[in-house]
Amino acid sequence: MARWKFGARAVWAVLALCAGLVAEGAVAQVRIKDIATFEGVRENQLVGYGLVVGLNGTGDSLRNSPFTEKSIEGMLERLGVGNLSDDNIRTQNTAAVMVTAMLPPFARRGSTIDVVVSSLGDASSLRGGTLIVTPLSGADGEVYAVAQGPIAVAGYAAQGLNASIVEGVPTVARIENGATVENEIGFELDSLRSIRIALRDPDFTTAVRVADAINRALGGNTARALDPSTVEVEPYGKTDLMGAMAAIERLEVEPDVRAKVVIDARSGTIVMGGNVRIDEVAVSQGGLTVMVREEIQVSQPEPISIGETVVVPQTTVEVTEQPARFAILDGGVSLQRLVDGLNAIGVGATETISILQAIKAAGALHADMEII
């Protein structure tokens, strides 16, 4: 427990608060499916280049976006309009866009997926537009889906002669179920001889606990931790891998996490884990406030005299210093109790962040500190 050696009544109130705090409980049991994934069962990124038409004069200006003009010419030639290379296209109702999507695992031919449409040129808004047929390719260059349809924009933009307003991002839109899967990614679970589980947050202790939980559920030494992020499972006598994977992902384990403190200096937000501890340390915090006040006075010449009006600035400087206060903390005190005590005596978020950084620099804070 912390011993605050201030001598003020407010400090004893802090002691009572700290003494009444409930000790941190154990980490909650979580399912394996919430902290890990099965190796090979993952999404794949798709990307494509297309055109959005039907915009109300908010599309690309073809002078600044020559690739949009070339794309319009190519599209019209494929549709049998003819050669337009010698003609000047002046439309402002078309925008070049990049279309992205995530192909989920085991997606079958004919199923639909959502797509995101993002402007590539200088279009001011995609509202009201329609995406023309756009093939979506994977990293291997193969086409796996085709997107088309009216787009939905969350933001808006309005502009007048002397003022404009923009809400959200009107140059990014979505199409729900806007792409149809045309090609499948071959992956057969029955061909696997073992199952590999990948932890989202690699940790030696968590990997061992996952392997132990699987061994208790399936029996024998079916699971073993290969490294901090991978657990391999070989279900003996299990021909139904789907059943084994379903049984494994429902198992509950207690993950082990590193002690970490995350500080957002801009908003004054402090997030800490329950395993954060500090050694015995003395903390002193004082504040210095400097106030500068500027007053402008005007000095005028006497009547019926030769002179000039002079502006004379008057500056007043006031310095207020808060008395520094010491706090001595026993070793093993949790960081949560330290922050609660500092809050109880009126220390703000900015001062608390400075104190935590100083304790870390002194080597008394046993946790990773990340400032974002």
From TrEMBL:
* Location relative to the cell: Bacterial flagellum basal body
Cite the NCBIfam families for this sequence: PRK05303.1 (NF003676)
What is the protein's given name? Flagellar P-ring protein
Q: Which domain of life is it from?
A: Bacteria
This molecule's function is given as:
Assembles around the rod to form the L-ring and probably protects the motor/basal body from shearing forces during rotation.
Subunit organization: The basal body constitutes a major portion of the flagellar organelle and consists of four rings (L,P,S, and M) mounted on a central rod.
- Which key words are in the record? Bacterial flagellum, Cell projection, Cilium, Flagellum, Periplasm, Signal
Where is it mostly found? Answer: other
Which family would the database say this protein is a member of? Belongs to the FlgI family.
Please give the InterPro entries that the UniProt record associates with this protein. Flag_FlgI (IPR001782)
Q: Name one GO cellular component term.
A: bacterial-type flagellum basal body, distal rod, P ring
Which Pfam family is one of this chain's hits? FlgI
Give start-end of the signal peptide.
1-28
Organism annotation: Roseivivax isoporae LMG 25204
| GO BP, sorted A to Z | bacterial-type flagellum-dependent cell motility
Question: Which GO terms label this protein's molecular function in UniProt?
Answer: structural molecule activity
Q: Which gene encodes it?
A: flgI
Q: Tell me yes or no: is Nucleotide-binding among this UniProt entry's keywords.
A: no
